[in-house]
Specification:
Blueprint: H1 3-21, H2 49-62, H3 90-99
Amino acid sequence: MDVQKKIKLSGLAILGMLVLAGCRAEEQGRLINYEPGVYKGKPDTELTEVQRRVLRQRSLHQGAGVASGGGAVPTKSRDVRKPSGSSIDQRKLRNRAKMQGGSSVRL
């Protein structure tokens, strides 16, 4: 057998292996015909009352901070000015603002 026939035969064997690799058992029975808006999977199982109660309880904990601003603790005062008599070093704050790119910051 000459080299050209061996190359063709090897290529054909590789192609055959690639085609057969797509025929795995887990690929069989997979949906390939899609219809938009139509669910063709297995029907969902009904949740038990205990599972519903647990999910409700979890959702209460997860949604607690949404109404108050994303989880932040709300303050009684809406005043955001610095407190009088504060020991904040204005020079350090100005320098920090410059380093962060806020050159037009007035403190």
